[in-house]
Amino acid sequence: MKFKTEVSTFVLLPVYLLMFVYSALTFIPWYFLTNAKKRKAMAKRIKAKPVSDQPGSPYRAMSHMDSLATIDIPGANTLDKLFQHAVENFGKKDCLGTRELLSEENEMQPNGKVFKKVIQGDYQWLSYDEVNTKVNYFGSGLAALGLKPKNTVAVFCETRAEWMIAAQACFKYNFPLVTLYATLGEEAVTYGLNESGATHLITSAELLETKLKNVLPQIPLIKHIIYVGKKNLNKGEYPANLEIHEMESIEDLGAKPEHLNNPPSRPLPSDLAVVMYTSGSTGRPKGVMIIHSNLIAGMAGQCERIPGLGFKDTYIGYLPLAHVLEMTAEISCVTYGCRIGYSSPQTLSDQSTKIKKGTKGDCTVLKPTLMAAVPEIMDRIYKNVMSKVQEMNVFQRTLFKLGYDYKLEQIKKGHDAPLCNVILFKKVKALLGGNVRMMLCGGAPLSPQTQRFMNICFCCPVGQGYGLTETCGAGTITEVSDYSTGRVGAPLGCCEIKLRDWQEGGYTNQDKPHPRGEIIIGGHNVSMGYFNNAEKTSEDFYEDENGQRWFCTGDIGEFHPDGCLQIVDRKKDLVKLQAGEYVSLGKVETALKNCPLVDNICAYANSYQSYVISFVVPNQKKLTDLAQHRGIVGTWEEICNNPTMEAEVLKELKEVASSSKLERFEIPIKVRLSPDPWTPETGLVTDAFKLKRKELKNHYLNDIERMYGGK
């Protein structure tokens, strides 16, 4: 990303020279102390290659050409053994942390809406030994309620320490865990609970009252509900056949000698560990069946790509634990003795929506060293920071831009810019606490522009990972030494990846300059299929002649000469227009998200029409400023519905599309502005903020007919 300077280079020449001289003086010790030469060699080396010369041959990591990884900690071949290993090695150290809630306030906004604001204290920590005690008590308590080994337990709860404690208890007592996103709608939750056959449900007091209460009569198999959170519920308002318990009461029950002295029936590697319901982008949620050995293998591959993972690290947990990315990240952190501080997207930073102005967000207090994110969150951070840059005076703005460009050039050479880090990017880095040493992004493609921005301004490697629930989140992860953008790294040591020709889309292993095709992942991390859905399982999974399982992802990839993978398309996102051209909707959206006026965008096309249209959630501040500049006044809804503003946004989209080198037929020619954001709660995006195209199409059906010249 290059910026044009806005003031005389002569005025800024002394500053630029100072940056250059300081960086030059600090370069030599930095170069040797950080092994810059070795890092450059690591970045350029071959990271994976095909196992044979045959076209379509699977690619493997160079470190695992002979055999794929199946285990990380010797002897720990089930999840309960991983946790026991952690307790034995890190017993007295901090494990799980939760911020103390001091008070809550209702704050009236200028538009009349009321936002709940929280005032929080410090993190309160449980040690590994204390977590282990709670795990033993809770598992014993579940058994005392009548649960038998291999009976499923459902968890429908926000990300918090109690989620992880309950999960570890279920792993130890061999109760397969059924996970459901806390943001799923009533219909999806009802479907998942009924299909899984769970008789015991772990949830929060808030979700019990707001989402479950009305649908419990439709879920007859649930007999026990265990809730977390300090709240006195009126149990008389619930079905008479239900027993409702506080989590602490189950721990108290399990602590009784007559229950605690009954040893758990420990799982085997082949036993079912999790039935993970995906908040998929189409149709009803599917339950992915994951056995212990699947997760053990997947995490073995993932941990290999996180250098120095250990007890000095602090991880901030705020993504949905029902998502495979967050669950495996947290279990891996626990395995290596990290501490996990819990947060939420609404309390993450000082500027987050639930943080009272003048108080500190969770990152500022926790100061994490490791962090996972989805592209939607990274894009928000990027746009917020760049909005602040635009509000600077001309001198500050130009200095920031010069420093940004200078550091970009240094990073491309494998170097750093210490003065820029200290003077220009320190405040940006502080948004996430100031200590983040590595960020990992997954769940959807991250735009190269956002990835490069995070690399530069947060002064740490920002890697991309590629994996799916069906592969335990494991597939590829970029190495910390690789500062390229737009790629997702080489295959992990636990799996191999091959590309299958997709003739309809025009992708083959013979493509030049690089082979392309549908990504097929094979290895011990590939799950056992879909719960109660043999037809879909046989469609997406298969076993080869050696008994190895493979999963057909539906994503289109391209292997680079160094063995790194790039996601270039998705079969479901490809639409053939009336004139025969193929449009990749995901490609269009990734390019147009770079428009400053856009917070989110969905491109739409069908084979009966000759052009693409789009739906846009605009950036409220940017669009409001533009409306004022054009002399348009009104409410936010009126601004979004104004044809002049639609035309202005469309004009900006076309400029971004042109600079991104989209083809003429890929550029939307009509746009509909949405005044309401798309959140998992609206049902229009998944918990990883992937677009739900079917739901979006239904939501905007009238607009689609209007923009295509219908009613």
UniProtKB/TrEMBL annotation:
It holds the Pfam family AMP-binding. It comes from the Eukaryota. InterPro entries: AMP-binding, AMP-binding_CS, AMP-dep_synth/lig_dom, ANL_N_sf. Keywords: Fatty acid metabolism, Ligase, Lipid metabolism, Membrane, Transmembrane, Transmembrane helix. This is long-chain-fatty-acid--CoA ligase. It is an enzyme of class 6 (ligase). It comes from Leptobrachium leishanense (Leishan spiny toad). Residues 117-531 form the AMP-dependent synthetase/ligase domain. The chain crosses the membrane at residues 12-33. PANTHER family: LONG-CHAIN-FATTY-ACID--COA LIGASE, LONG-CHAIN-FATTY-ACID--COA LIGASE 4. GO terms for cellular component: endoplasmic reticulum; lipid droplet; plasma membrane. GO terms for molecular function: arachidonate-CoA ligase activity.
